[in-house]
Design brief:
Elements lengths: L7 H8 L3 H10 L7 E3 L2 E3 L2 H10 L16
Antiparallel strand pairs: 1-2
Amino acid sequence: MSNELLTLREVAERLGITYGSACTYRWREDFPAPAQTYGRVALWRPRDVDKWHAARPGRGAGGGRPRKVAE
């Protein structure tokens, strides 16, 4: 087992999302709590992030504007 911890920027890279999206997820969704913090820097375990990501619904699930229907 690795003792590696990830910054939020590294979490974003790992998930293939922008840093801004990672910031939004951190505060808006059921994002895992940081494993450690050093001052203002939060750090996450890769397994916690992967578990959270695997449990998220797929793209386009649950919302957004309905598609226009061609008449």
